[in-house]
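Appendix B. Raw example, untouched.
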Amino acid sequence: MDPGVAQLAETIARHLSEWRDSPAHVELAVFGSDEPHAIAEELDRFCRRELGGGVAGALFHQSSIGCVSGLVLDDGRRVVVKGHQPERSVEWLREVVRVQMHLASRGLWATTVCGGPATLGQGYAIVEAFVDGGVTRDAHEPVVRRALARGLLRMVAAARPLAAASTLRGQLLSDGPDALWPVPHSKLFDFGKTAAGARWIDDVAARARVIMRGAATGDLVIGHGDWRAEHVRFDAVDGDRIVAAFDWDSLCKEREPSLVGFCAHAFCADWSRAEAIAPAPTLDEARAFVADYEDARARPFTADERRLCAAAFAYACAYSARCAWALGSDERDRPGTFQALVARHGARLLEAR
């Protein structure tokens, strides 16, 4: 095996070992295999076919909803290949690329797409230029929170000319069927089999869902549906200046109050950091994020828009709490978790302020 492909296989194997006894659901869906060497060879074939260069080394490999590989090609280029599961259509990915490049052309931190969407294994992949500048910040700091809220508004404003005709889908949690919960974003979470004892979470979600389904208020806008600290890099000196952002397949078309509510729920989250940073905001921090967005917008939400924003926030918090419950975790007494947030405040999360 080529040394670069062998190194990539070792990198993939290390990542998959972190999942311990859990199946490699994403890799199986994308590549039809969880064998690191087979995955590495498929990525090498993809790069030779689509980019004109083979894999000379590996920077990282991670998987969540999709699988992402940082690669060094044999001509020195450093790229990121993001593989998507088969249910993500090529038409939708093309629209993601179109909007992403629109934002990149306006300096809105979007990474440059240099390939795809193109077939990868059983799914499709998009190739982006590798970006390693900037640092992560703790979004519990007010200056970072404000920067994220203002950054979200800048993105919404820049993409506004595209919104009416865009075929982007709604945010993950807005598109669910009549059931209380949408299909979870990962096969790790089985809400049906873990429903016992979760009524305290489901009740909050049910009340929020009623408001969300009955409200059609606020402009339809395009934004990043998973806009949070983990996906954003800041200037190392000018600590509130965003220099890069990632995970652009989270672009969505959504009612503006809903988008802000969804983002208010997880803007602090950064599960990539080894040190303990509370993933959930406090209720006051979440409300401050919304207020920061309104201040930057120079126009407050109406009463109905605030009600929808609060419902989206509450539903998203309940969803994150339910994911932890599905993994067998009871974190109601652990500050900084979504379960603790829901357990402490319950229906108060729905209160528009």
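End of appendix B.
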